[in-house]
């Protein structure tokens, strides 16, 4: 089987992850309301752009296996359920450390490479459990915070929650914004809130969850993306996974255009995390292609691209198994968590 790296030009890690995102933080900038108010998003052109993507961009065989393996390294392996337990979180962490079976990696010429997921993502209650279970692996723990998923607890409680997760060892904090600020066009309030969240995170990298399914228009999505980046978000993330509509390719296009505009203006690279409902290998390939086309190859690395998903890994492993053995196995043979 061809070397996946050579087949695609994708880079794979030689050494274990470092336990934290080594990319320089986004320092943010002053709120530029004129810029925010001036943004537009052409909905129908955007729809046309993403509609043609699946047909235009397919990769086959070795190249597809390489792209899927790359996707594994970008997964924030997630459990965010009311019935989560320490045992479930420990199982998830074991899967994060060894996301693809050894025989599959061997057949792909990747045995011995430290292939892990990008992070494990849990509620605050399970941060310490995950940190302990992942000790020595270098895999960061991400905590969802600020009254996830609705974000309607008092502001000072949100800041305390972030601080508690950082104290327990979370290296990444996924905050939720107050949707009301976007729906009422109160950009100063959104900026101030995000600034406070970033400060409470200390050294932990902060991902801003916009809950795009709640924001009514794609123009609002672009505006909220810009304001969060101006306030220092290191990543912008689509969804909690709990809104009526979660990640889509169209909303991704809108957010990637905002990341591109912010990069052109400031030189700062902000990461992107689609989340919610991404469960098939075919889906994630489309997100990767859109990332590459809109932002370039550099944005395919786990320090700039994560996908928040609870069941995607099982399908990727199934597709990789099919690639190396020619057979599909049942989903239940690839349990996650
Ligand atoms: O941030 C991650 C999402 O909550 C995961 O959503 P999912 O369970 O639909 O994959």
From TrEMBL:
SMART domains reported in the protein's UniProt record: DeoC (SM01133)
GO biological process, alphabetically ordered: carbohydrate catabolic process; deoxyribonucleotide catabolic process
Record EC number: 4.1.2.4
Gene3D superfamilies noted in UniProt: Aldolase class I
GO MF annotation, one: deoxyribose-phosphate aldolase activity
Pfam families tied to this protein: DeoC (PF01791)
N-terminal signal peptide: none
Stretches the record annotates as Disordered: 1-23
Keyword Lyase: yes
Catalyzed reactions: 2-deoxy-D-ribose 5-phosphate = D-glyceraldehyde 3-phosphate + acetaldehyde
GO CC terms: cytoplasm
SUPFAM superfamilies in UniProt: Aldolase
Keywords in alphabetical order: Lyase, Schiff base
Pathway(s) of this molecule: Carbohydrate degradation; 2-deoxy-D-ribose 1-phosphate degradation; D-glyceraldehyde 3-phosphate and acetaldehyde from 2-deoxy-alpha-D-ribose 1-phosphate: step 2/2
Highest taxon listed in the record's lineage: Bacteria
Family, as annotated: Belongs to the DeoC/FbaB aldolase family. DeoC type 2 subfamily.
Name of protein: Deoxyribose-phosphate aldolase
Taxonomic lineage from the root: Bacteria, Pseudomonadati, Pseudomonadota, Alphaproteobacteria, Hyphomicrobiales
Gene name for this UniProt entry: deoC
């Amino acid at each position: 089987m061809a070397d996946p790296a050579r087949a695609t030009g994708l880079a794979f890690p030689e050494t274990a992850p470092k336990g934290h995102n080594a990319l320089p933080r986004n320092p943010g900038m002053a709120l530029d309301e004129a810029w925010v108010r001036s943004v537009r998003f052409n909905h129908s052109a955007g729809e046309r752009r993403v509609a043609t993507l699946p047909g235009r961009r397919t990769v086959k065989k070795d190249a597809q296996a390489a792209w899927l393996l790359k996707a594994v390294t970008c997964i924030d392996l997630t459990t965010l359920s009311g019935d989560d337990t320490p045992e479930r979180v420990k199982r998830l962490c074991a899967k994060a450390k060894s996301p693809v079976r050894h025989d599959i990696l061997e057949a792909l010429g990747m045995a011995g490479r430290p292939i892990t997921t990008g992070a494990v993502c849990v509620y605050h209650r399970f941060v310490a459990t995950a940190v302990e279970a992942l000790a020595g692996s270098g895999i960061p723990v991400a905590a969802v915070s600020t009254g996830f998923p609705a974000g309607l607890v008092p502001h000072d409680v949100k800041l305390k929650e972030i601080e508690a997760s950082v104290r327990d060892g979370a290296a990444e904090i996924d905050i939720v914004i107050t949707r009301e600020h976007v729906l009422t066009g109160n950009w100063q309030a959104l900026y101030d809130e995000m600034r406070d969240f970033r400060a409470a995170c200390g050294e932990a990298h902060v991902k801003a969850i916009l809950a795009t399914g709640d924001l009514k228009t794609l123009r609002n999505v672009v505006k909220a993306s810009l304001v969060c980046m101006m306030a220092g978000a290191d990543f912008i993330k689509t969804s909690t996974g709990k809104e009526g509509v979660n990640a889509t390719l169209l909303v991704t296009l809108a957010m990637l255009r905002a990341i591109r505009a912010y990069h052109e203006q400031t030189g700062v690279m902000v990461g992107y995390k689609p989340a919610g409902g991404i469960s098939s290998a075919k889906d994630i390939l489309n997100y990767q292609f859109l990332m590459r086309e809109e932002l370039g190859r550099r944005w395919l690395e786990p320090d700039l691209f994560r996908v928040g998903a609870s069941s995607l890994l099982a399908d990727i492993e199934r597709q990789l198994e099919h690639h190396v053995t020619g057979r599909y196995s049942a989903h239940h043979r690839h349990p996650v968590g």
